[in-house]
Amino acid sequence: MNMLTDEWKGQVVVVLGLARSGVAVARLLFHLGAKVTVNDRKPRAESPEAEELEKLGIPVICGGHPADLIHEGVDLLVKNPGISYTAPPVQQALVHRIPVVTEVEIAYRVTASPIIGITGSNGKTTTTTLVGRMLATGGIPSRIAGNIGRALAEVAPEMGSEEWLVAELSSFQLKGVQTFRPRIGALLNIVPAHMDYHGDLIDYIASKEKLFSNQQPSDIAVLNWDSAECHSAAEKVTAQILWFSRREPVASGVYIVDGRVMVRMFGEDAWELMPVSDMHLPGVHQENGLAAVAIALATGCPKEAVRHELATFTGVEHRLEFVGTKRGVRWYNDSKATNAKATIAAVGSFTDPVVLIAGGLDRGVDFKELVPVFQKLKGIVAYGEAAGVLLARAKEAGVRSRLQVQNVEEAVAAATTLVQPGDVALLSPACASWDQHTSFEERGSIFKQAVHTL
After folding, report:
1. 356-408 pLDDT, tens per residue?
2. d(Cα 332, Cα 357) in Å, to the nearest integer?
3. Which residues are CB-contacts of 125 (< 8 A; sequence separation ≥ 6)?
4. Which of 28, 26, 27, 37 is nearest to 4 (CA)?
5. pLDDT at 220 over 50
6. The Mur ligase central domain covers which part of the protein (predicted)?
7. Which residues are annotated as a binding site for ATP?
8. pLDDT given at position 144
9. CA dist., res. 365 & res. 389, Å (int)
10. Left if phi > 0, otherwise alpha if psi is -120 to 50, otherwise beta: which for 360?
11. Dihedral through CA 110, CA 116, CA 120, CA 126, nearest 10?
């Protein structure tokens, strides 16, 4: 452990929720001398993680929340980010004025590492992954953790002061922080989401903005110039701000102008990083690339490494992932798009003609919300259980080229009859994969293999 602390030694701590982060933070606090009890409402038979903790001597209570779990003698409640603040143990802790935090807060307090925190409604994983690649290529010591890979509480204690901890952070995680201070904090965008958890948009935005609440003037905030919500957040930021924009030049940050990715760091002269045409990230996802550039350069990462990774990065696997160009047609794998909203975002990322491949499990969804975006399509190939209703919506939208096939492999072959050089062929199913596949990953892999064999 690189930053020893006796802050929790002898304290009574309840960890609410097992899963990956719960196990990690329970182990950490136990090794730091806390008296830890873990509680999960799932039955013991559905909680295999419990055995690992019990072998260490940590009590684990499964199958519900005991009435006496939270009492005045409890010093701290660490809850799994996904557990609602309306859960009885959380409500009881708040009544007793017991601090309620998430794993992020604990990880921050035990690490010597400077932290890069990345949040936003969309694009977190893509941006975090790209930053990690840029730093690795540039020889900047770093590790990725949080919603990607290992839990923060598992990684943070291992890291030294010369390593950057690159953390993807959700609003659920950030809502439960108190002193957390990232050296670089990035807010990519804000659109209404998770209202069932936060209750309203105000709480959702406030949770995102907690990323910046403890930053100092020497820290850096990376914000989206093209987002009104980010401008509102900027009014509360005390750190130096680097903006990113697809639309216009910014005083300090990364932006696109005249088909070029330009950089101007804190008042320095602007310089060109690369042509936009060298990027494989499409449409709105270019924002993620610009944010990653700003973050990486702020760490001192060499511009050559930043340029190389931005030019070669094809996206996170199965998330609008660039597969390759075949006979002048660009193929993209967005197999993770298991609902209509995700497919709307994917199609909207392109300005070139799109032939869409969609289909999968029929959950009784009518897909009416897809009609406006279907109006932009050059053609559609539908497969699987939901093919019929998808084609009906495509007909309603006026899509002339409509084909139905049995599976993904046949869909790739059929799509080749509809595309021309300069077009985009996009797998964005709008459906779960379970009618024919065990996962969206399997579906995406089959799609890529079919494209590679064209």
Report:
1. 999 999 989 999 999 999 999 999 999 999 999 999 999 999 999 999 999 99
2. 10
3. 147, 148, 168, 316, 319
4. 28
5. yes
6. 118-296
7. 120-126
8. 96
9. 8
10. left
11. -120
Provide the annotated binding site.
120-126
Confidence at residue 4, expressed as pLDDT on a 0 to 100 scale: 58
- CA atoms lying within 13 Å on the CB side of residue 254: 26
Q: Is the pLDDT of residue 207 over 90?
A: yes
* Contact residues for 136 (Cβ-Cβ < 8 A; gap 6+): 142
Q: Which phi and psi (to 5°) does residue 222 adopt?
A: -110, 120
Q: What tens digit of pLDDT does each residue of 69-93 get?
A: 999 999 999 999 989 999 999 999 9
Task: Kindly list the distances between the CA atom of residue 116 and the CA atoms of 36, 156, 192, 272, in Å, as whole numbers in the listed order.
Answer: 29, 12, 24, 25
Instruction: Tell me the average pLDDT across 253-279.
Output: 96
Residue 204 pLDDT greater than 50, yes or no: yes
Domains of the chain: 12-101 (3.40.50.720), 105-312 (3.40.1190.10), 321-452 (3.90.190.20)
Query: What is the C-alpha to C-alpha distance for residues 101 and 91, in angstroms, rounded to an integer?
Result: 13
User: How many of the other CB atoms lie within 10 Å of CB of 59?
Assistant: 12
Distance in angstroms (rounded) separating the CA atoms of residues 250 and 273: 15
